[in-house]
From TrEMBL, chain A:
The protein's name in its UniProt record: ABC transporter substrate-binding protein
Keyword Transport: yes
Domain Leucine-binding protein: 31-368
InterPro entries: BCAA_transport (IPR051010), Leu-bd (IPR028081), Peripla_BP_I (IPR028082)
Organism: Azospirillum isscasi
Keyword Transport part of the UniProt annotation: yes
Gene3D superfamilies recorded: 3.40.50.2300
Chain segments annotated as transmembrane: none
Record keywords, A-Z: Amino-acid transport, Signal, Transport
Signal peptide: 1-21
Automatic annotation (TrEMBL), chain B:
Segments crossing the lipid bilayer: 12-35, 42-62, 68-88, 100-122, 149-168, 200-220, 232-254, 266-285
Organism name: Azospirillum isscasi
Keywords recorded for this protein, A-Z: Amino-acid transport, Cell membrane, Membrane, Transmembrane, Transmembrane helix, Transport
Protein name as annotated: Branched-chain amino acid ABC transporter permease
Subcellular location: Cell membrane
Length: 404, 295
């Protein structure tokens, strides 16, 4: 009697289990991708609608369908406000059935969104944000950091400049999570390479006039002024540094720690020439990148930044993982993504660490002089390939503690 | 070397001079706002967008027609002024009978539309505008390197502010204007065409914004966001100075520029809120503003 009862219970359990597996295949019968970024402010050109275009390109390449279910792309503006970003994420996941959040530049917003996606067990593909904390103390089992991070920038640009003799540094830092982390990571690399940091000034995000801060940097006696800021802030500070003759005297040199292709385009080569920068992607490196970028340009009128190209790559990999896992369930897909190597036009043999860091080669580039450039968008000369293992922290060094 | 509050005096002079330069923009913009509010009783939220428009007109003139900086300095304010006249004639003039709030909402909406259009076509990173050849380079003042162009901005804005103040407070036309503000019906009865005067005032006020835009173009990127970045501070300046007070707007503009410069030395993190802290304090102590009259 008891044996029969047990067998019956086992059978019932089996039936329930398989029903769940059936249900879990594709939630809501649609894979919904939410592109969340700054669509109107100072970071709109480096990600913005361009990231959504790149994601749609990835979706088109798989025919707009996965596991027989349609793929939908939605986009929203987080206005660089963490509260707005996490609210949209909650709404998307709870109400609209969004399965994955993509891009989210501005480290402050990304840290907030990471909390939500961790709690809801949804995939978060980060291309825009920079702070290495996203795969460090703030890591999540379903969070993936794709295009670059503050550590890679510090290793690339920081070390290269110290090696050239720029030993005394002063930081001009954007006063929020990203700037602080970039400053800290770069300072660590500078000191490791034998340099020193003589001072730093924290400027509010989206400052219109940097002259006052630049003047402080000028009188600090530093050889290198490290710009730990991004987007519109970087553009303004480089432009005004040139106006105030900071670099013409030859005693000081600017190090743009995070410079996007869109920034160089906005500055013009006359002002931006000879800047050394670290990037995860440049369109004019091989045929595959050129072909994809031309397609992107036909849709947007601009060449892609590393954020936009990275958004394409991450979504492509995510869709492959769904195909392989046979479900869009967050933790299952995340595990699958970490098993598979990343091979596309963006990265060759990229691998994903358990903390979600996608490790791929980074590139040290120099901005061309106007005389060297053959036309619009011909901006970078790649001077060094930084192997992924050198650019990004190992799991042990990252400070990430994942359960299990 | 001796120091003032731990800062070398040379660095302090440098920062004060920079504050004066930023103050020049505050003064030019708040002057336009004050003139418009004084005559029309309209809180012109489109001012930032029109400042941006001035910079873009200069940039378009340069890239499309090859028209240089000096002509742009004349033409851009005219274009922006003409645009302002159209706005006043077709839209704003319908709202004078209503509460202030409607003018504010209308101009705020206009600002969003104008900005949105430019953002759609030009993105947010902005377009570079070169410094005119005549004003390239700079002077080494001993305590700082002053780019010639920034020096020119201070001089130009001082001249314009003084000229405007003189025209309104010391000329006959200015007297008509001030009278029309006090009692439009009576002034009209003397045979003066008040509606035309109001239109011209609005056109002049926004032309000032256009002029500030051209002056700003070589310093900042010519970007659709440049107006909204500045306009909130400028409103705070007008509130502190006293709504409708022309001299108050100019003096407060320069004063707050200086104060902001000092904040950037002593506590940079607070530099973008110091103006608002002062606004709150002034509103508590003297609600009409430092130079304003209670109405």
């Amino acid at each position: 009697m008891i044996a029969r009862l047990l067998a019956g219970a086992a059978l019932a359990a089996l039936a329930v289990g398989s029903a769940q597996a059936q249900q879990g295949k594709v939630s809501g019968d649609v894979v919904k991708i939410g592109v969340l970024n700054d669509r109107s402010g100072l970071y709109a050109d480096l990600g913005g609608e361009g990231s959504a275009v790149a994601v749609r390109m990835a979706v088109e390449e798989v025919g707009g369908k996965i596991l027989g279910k349609p793929i939908e792309v939605v986009a929203a503006d987080h206005q660089n406000k963490p509260d707005i970003g996490s609210n949209i994420t909650r709404e998307w996941i709870d109400r609209d059935g969004v399965d994955v959040i993509v891009d989210v530049p501005n480290s402050g917003v990304a840290l907030a969104v990471q909390e939500v996606t961790r709690e809801k067990k949804k995939i978060f593909l980060m291309e825009g944000p920079a702070t290495s904390r996203l795969t460090g103390d703030a890591c999540s089992p379903t969070g993936f950091h794709w295009a670059y991070d503050t550590r890679a920038l510090a290793v690339g640009t920081g070390q290269a400049i110290v090696k050239e003799g720029g030993k005394k540094w002063f930081f001009l830092t954007a006063d929020y999570a990203f700037g602080h982390q970039l400053e800290a990571d770069t300072a660590a690399e500078v000191k490791k390479a034998g340099g020193s940091v003589v001072g730093a000034v924290r400027a509010p995000l989206n400052t219109a006039d940097f002259s006052s801060f630049l003047l402080q940097a000028q009188s600090s006696g530093a050889q290198v002024i490290g710009l730990a800021n991004a987007g519109g802030d970087t553009i303004t500070s480089i432009k005004q540094a040139s106006e105030f003759g900071l670099t013409q005297s030859g005693q000081q040199k600017l190090a743009g720690l995070l410079i996007f292709l869109s920034d160089v385009h906005a500055l013009g080569l006359q002002v931006a020439q000879d800047l050394v920068l670290t990037t995860g992607f440049y369109w004019d490196m091989d045929d595959e990148k050129r072909a994809w970028s031309e397609k992107f340009k036909a849709k947007t009128g601009k060449m892609p930044t590393m954020v936009q190209a990275g958004s394409y790559s991450a979504v492509k990999h995510y869709l492959k993982a769904i195909e392989a896992a046979g479900t869009d369930d967050g933790p299952t897909v995340a595990a699958k993504m970490k098993e598979m190597p990343v091979n596309d036009m963006f990265a060759k043999n990229g691998k994903i660490l358990p903390n979600g860091r996608m490790v791929h080669d980074m590139y040290l580039a120099r901005v061309k002089k106007p005389s060297e450039s053959k036309g619009p968008w011909d901006y970078y000369e790649i001077i060094r390939t930084i192997p992924g293992d050198e650019a990004f922290a190992t799991l042990a060094d990252s400070g990430c503690k994942l359960p299990g | 070397m001796s120091t003032i509050f731990g800062i070398p005096p040379q660095a302090l002079f440098g920062q004060l001079l920079l504050g004066l330069i930023n103050g020049s923009f505050y003064a030019l913009l708040s002057l336009g706002l004050a003139v418009i509010f004084g005559m029309l009783n309209v809180i012109n939220f489109a001012h930032g967008a029109l400042y941006m428009l001035g910079a873009f007109v200069a940039w378009l003139l340069l890239t499309m027609a090859g028209v240089g900086y000096w002509w742009a300095l004349l033409l851009a304010p005219l274009v922006v002024g003409a645009f302002g006249v159209i706005l006043e004639k077709t839209l704003l003039s319908r709202l004078y009978k209503l509460d202030h709030l409607y003018g504010l909402l209308l101009t705020f909406g206009l600002a969003l539309i104008v900005e949105g259009i430019f953002r759609h076509f030009y993105g947010v990173s902005g377009q570079p505008y070169p410094i005119p050849d005549l004003l390239r380079g700079g002077q080494n003042l001993g305590f700082m390197f002053l780019p010639n162009y920034r020096g020119w901005v201070v001089v130009a804005s001082l001249i314009v502010c003084l000229a405007t103040w003189y025209a309104i407070e010391r000329t006959k036309l200015g007297a008509y204007l001030r009278a029309a503000t006090e009692n439009p019906v009576l002034v009209q009865a003397f045979g003066i065409n008040v509606p035309v005067m109001i239109t011209a005032t609005y056109g002049f006020g926004v032309a000032l914004a256009g002029l500030a835009g051209v002056l700003a173009a070589p310093i900042y990127q010519v970007s659709p966001l440049m107006g909204s970045n500045l306009i909130i501070v400028v409103f705070a300046v007008v509130v502190i100075g006293g709504m409708g007070s022309i001299l108050g707007a100019v003096l407060t503009g320069y004063g707050l520029g200086l104060l902001e410069g000092l904040t950037k030395v002593f506590y940079p993190e607070a530099s973008n809120i110091v103006v608002f802290v002062i606004m709150a304090v002034v509103l508590l102590i003297k609600p009409a503003g430092l130079f304003g009259r209670e109405r």
